[in-house]
Specification:
Layout: E1 2-4, E2 8-10, E3 24-31, E4 40-43, E5 46-49, H1 51-61, H2 63-66, E6 70-77, E7 81-88, E8 96-97, E9 106-107, H3 114-131, E10 144-147, H4 151-171
Helix pairs in contact: 1-3
């Protein structure tokens, strides 16, 4: 076990020996720090995004524009967290590594690991928030992920994401019901 930020010991939740840049489908849950409700309200089982929530939605939708081999599936933004399915697709040839010998140029496109994709999303939202008057906005320092193992699990996760606003009133005061670290 190692120390996290030299403060306390915490085990990694990542699957040992798994390369998180591997083409696959991943469920991610990203929480706000201390579960503060920054993104809007659930009213009558429907999520209503405020200004910051709309930015989170916009930036989430833009992820594939920044990572050409990444796609998105179901997602939901809740008052204090986001659940989403990120799809890392196989790498396609899009560029070349420059070489002094033009004959030996090789195709190249790096696939970023899931943590880098989520980190860049969180950083973009945070930058926007600070520039636009949300100086107290913070994400939780880590995020939850799950490698989606089969079609049945994908179906259940999609249903969970869709039904998240319906369960908000029952679960909002029970942090153990939110994927958390």
């Amino acid at each position: 076990m190692s120390k996290f930020k030299n403060t306390f010991r915490i085990e990694s939740t990542r699957l040992i020996n798994w390369d998180y840049s591997t083409p696959w489908w991943y469920l991610v849950t990203i929480n706000t720090k201390n579960h503060i409700e920054f993104f809007g309200k659930v009213v009558n089982d429907k999520m209503y995004l405020n200004e910051l929530g709309k930015i989170v939605d916009k930036f989430w939708e833009e992820i594939p524009n920044h990572f050409k081999n990444v796609g998105l599936d179901y997602y939901v933004i809740m008052p204090n967290h986001i659940h989403g399915i990120i799809i890392i697709n196989p790498i396609v040839e899009t560029g070349y590594i420059p070489s002094q010998d033009k004959q030996s140029e090789t195709p190249y496109m790096a696939s970023l690991p899931l943590g880098d994709i989520v980190g860049k999303f969180k950083a973009a939202v945070t930058r926007w928030a600070y520039k636009n008057g949300y100086s107290n906005f913070k994400w939780q320092s880590r995020f939850y992920d799950r490698i989606i193992r089969n079609e049945n699990e994908l179906f259940n996760i999609r249903r969970y994401i869709e039904q998240n606003p319906l369960k908000w009133e029952l679960e909002k005061d029970k942090p153990e019901n939110i994927f958390d670290l």
